[in-house]
Design brief:
By secondary structure, the chain is α+β, with helices and mostly antiparallel strands. The chain is about 40% helix and about 15% strand. Helix 1 runs antiparallel to helix 2.
Length: about 140
């Protein structure tokens, strides 16, 4: 009986040791992809040509991220400015020197459930990973 218990505990620990780094790697890659997308959108949106991040840019971003396995409907974009104005309106681009803020959120999708084998509680179903950034607008009317 004791040997069976040791075997079950060893098997659970062995499974966790084998598969946990894979899931952690996926988590790190997803976080890096989100941050890369934030940086790209801020670079384009805050440029002298635009001064905003519009719906078309967000739609293209969703399409790019879906190519990496993200589900476009679950991506949340939060766009604002340091002055409190939207930052999404093409008719009112942010003038030079105003900060454009962007945050993209995506759910963990039960990615860390394997951690339960060693007694670590994964994030709840409503938790989201996020990447954010801010860049000063370079738009000159």
């Amino acid at each position: 009986m004791k040997q069976l218990l040791v075997f079950i505990l060893f098997a659970a620990m062995f499974c966790w040791l084998m598969f946990s780094p894979v899931y952690k790697h996926v988590l790190v890659i997803r976080q890096a992809l989100l941050q890369q997308e934030v940086d790209y959108l801020l670079e384009v949106g805050a440029s002298g040509r635009y001064g905003y991040i519009g719906e078309a840019m967000v739609a293209e971003s969703r399409e790019r991220l879906s190519g990496y396995g993200f589900q476009p409907g679950k991506l949340e974009y939060d766009i604002s400015s340091t002055e409190g104005t939207g930052g999404t309106d093409a008719s009112m681009p942010l003038p030079r020197g105003v900060g454009l803020k962007l945050t993209i959120r995506y759910p963990y999708e039960q990615l860390l459930n394997i951690d339960r084998l060693i007694g670590v509680e994964p994030p709840d179903a409503h938790s989201r990973m996020a990447a954010s950034g801010m860049k000063m607008s370079e738009y000159v009317p």
